[in-house]
TrEMBL record:
Its cofactor is pyridoxal 5'-phosphate. GO terms for biological process: L-histidine biosynthetic process. This is Histidinol-phosphate aminotransferase. Residues 33-362 form the Aminotransferase class I/classII large domain. It comes from Bilophila wadsworthia (strain 3_1_6). The keyword Amino-acid biosynthesis applies. The keyword Ribosomal protein does not apply.
Length: 367
């Protein structure tokens, strides 16, 4: 048979690299208890209220969700104190990011801009949309060189992506720098602040423009239910965008990409304030503890406001690839950062106190 017909950008496509799954490691090493600290999931699991909601709605699985997910949109809008006409939801914030490229950036004409390394979905979806993604490296300490970013912006730039807290470093720029950036961009360009991890910062007001969007008409805030709300497997993300953009989003989005279970779970998750607060408390406490312990082991830990830490191993010990493998054999999954161009670094999601302790005990033996 002759080759399957395919667009050339699909043939040469470099896919997103996901963290290893618990099942893969169980099977490969025959280990029952596997600790996954690779995908920045919620250490407390799923909120009891979300679990209850899923159970009570499972009988409705035969129904389509209501197009446009209006109840969920209203709940998110109320949570942020914005008009529902500015809220869009997607099948994870991955879908929101994908659709921002499709809606805002004309391939071959316009461009998008981001730092490097960046969250992998920016590069995969830009490539798939045939969009030029211009990138400039972050500083050696993983802070952001704004002047270099601005040098990439021209009158054809439609989107500038800034991830805050950043992934994979955890770096989080002060809000004053975002204000300056938003004002410096041409008004033909939208600034997308990807705040997937913003709930874990010590004080949101120091880092986020989410409560001040009226002052910044060209700013988009993107968030997710995958992290602090513990719903990564249900796939639900959202963004607050200018009304005109929301209007077009609903026209082009696949009509039912946010499924009925995710919709009900999202509404419930917003109500379970106690679970959310406890998650944030456990993450902040674990982050401080892990930072101290990894530092004692000689690692360079990069400051993080997120639910994960990036660290560089001491020069005199094993390299990141071999430590990663040795930890896997003990049933602990971290995230090597080779695919981000950082072969000496690893990323660890903050787990429960017990999981964090098991990781540090294992590393003490291996380093
Ligand atoms: N943005 C960033 C920076 C992320 O790290 C992630 C999750 N890994 C996402 C967006 C996507 O989140 P989701 O699709 O699960 O909502």
């Amino acid at each position: 048979m002759s080759p399957i017909p395919m667009r050339s950008l699909v043939r040469g496509f470099k896919p997103y690299t996901a963290g290893l799954s618990i099942d893969e490691i169980r099977e490969k090493y025959g280990i029952e208890r596997v600790i996954k600290l690779a995908s920045n999931e919620n250490p407390l699991g799923t909120s009891p209220l979300v679990q209850h909601t899923l159970e009570t709605h499972v009988g409705l699985a035969f129904r389509y969700p209501q197009a446009g997910n209006p109840r969920l949109v209203k709940a998110i809008a109320a949570h942020h104190g914005v008009s529902p006409s500015r809220v869009i939801v997607g099948d994870g914030s991955d879908e929101v990011i994908d659709l921002l490229f499709r809606i805002c950036v004309e391939p071959g004409v316009n461009n998008a801009v981001a730092f490097m390394p960046c969250f992998g979905i920016y590069t995969t979806q830009a490539a798939l949309c045939g969009v030029e993604l211009r990138q400039t490296p972050v500083n050696a300490d993983f802070s952001f060189p704004w002047d270099n970013l601005l040098k990439l912006v021209d009158d054809k730039t439609s989107l500038v992506f800034v991830t805050t807290p950043d992934n994979p470093s955890g770096y989080t720029p002060p809000v004053a720098e975002l204000e300056t950036l938003a004002k410096a961009l041409p008004d033909t360009c939208l600034l997308v602040l990807d705040e997937a991890y913003m709930d874990f910062t010590d004080d949101e007001a120091d880092y986020s423009l989410a409560k001040r969007l009226d002052e910044f008409p060209n700013v988009i805030i993107s968030r997710t239910f995958s992290k602090s709300f513990g719903m990564a497997g249900l796939r639900l993300g959202y963004a607050i965008v200018p009304e005109e953009l929301a209007d077009h989003y609903w026209r082009v989005r696949l009509p039912f990409s946010v499924n009925l279970m995710a919709e009900e779970a999202g509404i419930a998750a917003l109500q379970d304030v106690a679970f959310h607060d406890e998650t944030v408390r456990v993450v902040r406490e674990g982050r401080a503890w892990l930072t101290g312990e990894l530092t004692k082991l000689g690692c360079r830990v990069f400051p993080s406001q997120s639910n994960f830490l990036m660290f560089e191993l001491p020069a005199d010990g094993p390299n990141a690839a071999s430590l990663f493998e040795d930890l896997l054999r003990r049933g602990i999954i971290l995230r090597p950062l080779t695919s981000y161009g950082l072969p000496r670094n690893l990323r660890v999601s903050v787990g429960t106190a017990e999981e964090n302790t098991m990781l540090i005990n294992a590393m003490r033996e291996l380093l």
